[in-house]
Amino acid sequence: MSLLVVGLSHRSAPVSVLERAALARETQARLVHDTLAAEPATEAAVLATCNRIELYADVDKFHAGVAELSTLLARHTGVPLEELTPYLYVHYEDRAVHHLFSVACGLDSMVVGEGQILGQIKDALALGQELHTAGRLLNDLFQQALRVGKRAHSETGIDKAGQSLVTFGLERLACGVPVADWVAGKRALVIGAGSMSSLAAATLARAGAAHVAVANRTVERAERLARILTEPGAPGAVTASAVKMAAVPDELALADIVVSCTGATGLVLTVDVIQNALATRPAAAPSTGAGTVAGTGADVRLALLDLAMPRDVDAAVHRLEGARLVDIETLAEASADAPMAADVDQVRSIVSDEVAAFGAAQRAAHITPTVVALRAMAADVVAGEMARLDGRLPGLDDKQRAEITQTVRRVVDKLLHAPTVRVKELASTPGGAGYADALRELFDLDPQAVAAVSRADTRADRHTTAREPA
């Protein structure tokens, strides 16, 4: 295993850089294809969220891999390499596994303990499987990361202390007022119909919004989300509607709360559009409009939450009287309620245990091609010796020949059983890769035969639909 991750996140880079480096899905696909085409990489996957971009690869050379992955990130994000490099972090082998498992548990999130990252990891794995760029290593890694994340949330209280980015953003908008009290009875506009927007719409409905309008470039997706919000058993007793993007300015004049999270590369809501919407609205009373922001005395007629990267809402909206904007940059600067230290420590312990188990399993799997090649060589030796025996004893009947063949095979199997079992056990320990080398040397195995087994396994893994993550 030579796992390498090169990336940047809200912990390493300012929002302005993350915004410039944001990757659309089609760009992510080109990135992993180009990574696989690069000489140092044999597998590739990309994890791209609103506050992180990470490129994972199985490489055969560390330094060449770092240089190639960094260059590819710069090329596909459009941020020059010399500007991007100071914000990049690099993790290798077990440290890379530890990093992804920590991310999956929410330990590296802007809001510690949030669970939405699991869906984003699942999406990254699905893209790698769809494009056949994720082989055995990355399939195993990402599927195990999903299981570790679910284990952390089920066995500890980190998810109770943590929260989704949507809830965190709404809390910042509400300025100390309970979200349910602040949202209740208000009219909301959600722009976008992806996973984050769907979560926002459901959160607003659950909090008691009177109406949720959904706008999306593809109206059918907006209509589907609106239907889901009003289905029997849906959270809250909200009414919902779908609107075209062209109707957003009109909807802004009616909305109290706006949540925007699209994949657009440019601004969706300019300062002029927001200013025009505010001009059509009277000064709001707390019972009808977005309300008075607690602790500020400011009369907020339109509250906006921008969860997009790059941003959907013009940052100049911060300066408009009557509007309150919370965006990714605001959230990055804010401090969420810290989870209990005991829960964080428990999750870290889970991550450490899972990293050790994953590393042991991968090292054990690394010996498998050598063992397969050894047994194939033994089978060839048996076949060769039986052919020689046929020449020396041509009078053997089929029954006699079969009995001798079976006896020779049993002798070979018994001789190989103890060393192959033991070498698999030893290979799972740190530094165990050397035992595969020793086995190849002791039995004079053809390196090409071992490599052929590995290549066959990799091809099979890439072109076989992976099992659904647990």
Characterise this structure:
55% of the residues lie in helices and 13% in strands. The chain has 470 residues and is of the alpha/beta class. It has three domains: 3-161, Glutamyl-tRNA reductase, N-terminal domain (Beta Polymerase, domain 2, 2-Layer Sandwich), CATH 3.30.460; 165-333, 3-Layer(aba) Sandwich (Rossmann fold); 369-420 and 434-464, no CATH class. A six-stranded parallel β-sheet has the order 7-6-5-8-11-12. A four-stranded antiparallel β-sheet has the order 2-3-1-4. A two-stranded antiparallel ribbon has the order 9-10. Strand 6, helix 12 (219-230) and strand 7 (239-243) form a beta-alpha-beta unit. Helix 5 packs across helix 16, helix 6 (116-130) packs antiparallel against helix 7 (136-155) and helix 7 runs antiparallel to helix 16 (341-392). The two termini are 23 Å apart.
